[in-house]
């Protein structure tokens, strides 16, 4: 425990979590909570930056995502799970940091630029969306997070936070803020059931952790495979075939998977047979998650209570940082 | 008292207040506090948007400006005087409102555009400065202010707030936020002692409410007058002559001022004579202010305590608005 570090991570609550989230972040969180001091944030304030028109979706998703967390084994005794909007210090830190960053710098954040393009915002991008990297800097520094797990597309966000930390500490001649380091996920992104590069709710190609056995069955049956694999006897491709990617990610019988791949590549193995096996694998993986989720879902008040308790803990930590920030700036009027 | 309205006004605490502030806003506040429910904000968070490098100046100015308020007769029993940074709800409201405003809209705020030009920021304008109109919208709406006294250069700021109010109420189908109305000052701006259009600390042409009798005397003696009035017997100009503008603003013996003006215009009245009279007038005006200020300055802790009490009252009001805002958005998790 000597090398225990502080980790901040989280999700924008804009829908239930799926297998892509599990592979990309949830699995790691379940491990990391045993090694480090982990905070997981339900980033509702950040979700509002591009969902201001549908706050009810965010509200519902807070509970759903919390259920997903508990179902996969994120343990509130080990991980502090909290709701961003219940931590007022984060908004205050954001405003102080915004004075240390130029308008020009925000405009040139590569991640935000790409997202603006993808969302088709153009000049009508909400101002809140443009400044969300600074809101993230507030989140990360409030907890003095040393490690932040990110995808490689999110590296510019960590760079922005590091800039804020350096500017603040230099400007106010202090060492209050801590530079975070990115933990860059080495795991390849899980493709969608349609074979597209990314599993995503908005693309309609996701298998959710909360999907029923029937829903999973339907989704697996209609999965994209090798479009050149027309007849059973044809040789089929394994690369870029999501059925095999999922088997690699969730199957435990590695020998059997190697055998299936060889057979498929040689020809003589029908998609339906491989899909039937994938379905078994996924149900075996999802069954216990689904059961735990149903159990927790019976008492949503208890789940919210857990989030409120986590938010109290997180709020105290963030408030302490805010006090130190104000001390460093010298606007601590009570002192 | 039936037509009592809520007023929000205030100052960026970046230095002591001067005669220009008195004429432009303080005098009105002393009157308005008897008619309306007045909040006066020491806008330290806003001051940081362009003074992030000198927070100690802001900190000191909070006390100095509070002393100026008390000295001119703003009464904490009638007016709630508070410190912006002690009201966390304002930062939270700012972040929520930023999602309802486009980046493009912020860029085209005429007041901010002009200020950027004046300050020579160019592309390096701090992001916090660009968004300060939304921070102001948070200040105004947090107190449900119906009236906001402004100079005519500040009208675009009130328009921006009205836009936020309408957008919020429409977006969340509610009537939580209140549209403010500008009270536009009809009083001409007080020129500087150098005859420039505006009295301003940064131009070094200000007479401060806290200046000693000696300082006032020196400043009046070196005041700009009519540059064409070379010899006593020459006719002199009264228009654009700050000595007469100050007499109009602070003199009580209107008949005498009319007489002096006529004499000056005709010729035969020396600048030193008029200045001597102006000095009498200013000392008569400033003496009681100076005395009250010195009295209050003996106990700075009591002044800060008054600000803390005011901030508690203000914080409760702003927090109540934040609760209503969250209710309207439906992200009131505790309900």
Summarize the structure in words:
- Two copies of one chain form a homodimer.
- With 335 residues, chain A is mainly alpha-helical.
- Chain A folds into two domains: 6-190 and 300-329, 3-Layer(aba) Sandwich (Rossmann fold); 211-294, Tyrosyl-Transfer RNA Synthetase (Orthogonal Bundle), CATH 1.10.240.
- The first copy, chain A, is 56% helix and 7% strand.
- Chain A has 14 helices and five strands.
- The first copy, chain A, has helices spanning 19-35, 44-51, 55-72, 88-98, 103-107, 110-119, 127-130, 132-142, 155-171, 213-221, 242-250, 254-266, 271-297, 300-329, and strands spanning 6-11, 37-42, 79-83, 147-150, 181-184.
- Chain A has a three-stranded parallel β-sheet. The first copy, chain A, has a two-stranded parallel ribbon with strand order 4-5.
- In chain A, β4 (147-150), α9 (155-171) and β5 (181-184) form a beta-alpha-beta unit.
- In chain A, α2 packs across α3, α8 packs across α9 (155-171) and α10 (213-221) runs antiparallel to α13 (271-297).
- At the A-B interface, α2, α3, α4, α5 and α7 of A face α2, α3, α4, α5 and α7 of B.
């Amino acid at each position: 425990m000597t090398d225990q570090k502080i980790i901040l991570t989280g999700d924008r609550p804009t829908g239930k979590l799926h297998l892509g989230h599990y592979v990309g972040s949830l699995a790691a969180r379940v491990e990391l909570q045993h090694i480090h001091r982990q905070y997981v944030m339900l980033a509702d304030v950040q979700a509002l930056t591009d969902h201001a028109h549908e706050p009810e979706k965010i509200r519902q998703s807070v509970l759903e995502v919390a259920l997903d967390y508990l179902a996969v084994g994120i343990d509130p005794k080990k991980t502090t799970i909290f709701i961003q909007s219940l931590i007022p210090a984060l908004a205050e830190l954001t405003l102080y940091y915004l004075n240390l960053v130029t308008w020009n710098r925000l405009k040139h954040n590569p991640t935000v630029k790409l997202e603006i393009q993808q969302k088709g915002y153009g000049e009508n991008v909400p101002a809140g969306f443009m400044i969300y990297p600074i809101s993230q800097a507030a989140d990360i520094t409030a907890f003095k997070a040393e490690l932040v797990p990110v995808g490689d597309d999110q590296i510019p966000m960590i760079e922005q936070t590091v800039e804020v930390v350096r500017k603040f500490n230099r400007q106010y001649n202090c060492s209050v803020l801590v530079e975070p380091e990115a933990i860059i996920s080495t795991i390849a992104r899980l493709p969608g059931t349609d074979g597209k590069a990314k599993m995503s709710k908005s693309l309609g190609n996701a298998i959710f952790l909360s999907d029923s056995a029937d829903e999973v069955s339907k989704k697996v049956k209609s999965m994209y495979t090798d479009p050149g694999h027309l007849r059973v006897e044809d040789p089929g491709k394994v690369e870029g075939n999501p059925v095999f990617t999922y088997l690699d990610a969730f199957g435990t019988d590695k020998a059997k998977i190697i055998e299936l791949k060889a057979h498929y590549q040689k020809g003589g193995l029908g998609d339906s047979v491989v899909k039937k096996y994938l379905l078994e694998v996924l149900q075996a993986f999802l069954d216990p998650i689904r059961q735990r989720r149903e159990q927790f879902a019976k008492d949503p008040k208890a789940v919210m209570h857990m989030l409120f308790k986590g938010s109290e803990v997180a709020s105290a930590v963030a408030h302490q940082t805010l006090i130190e920030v104000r001390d460093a700036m010298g606007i601590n009027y009570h002192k």
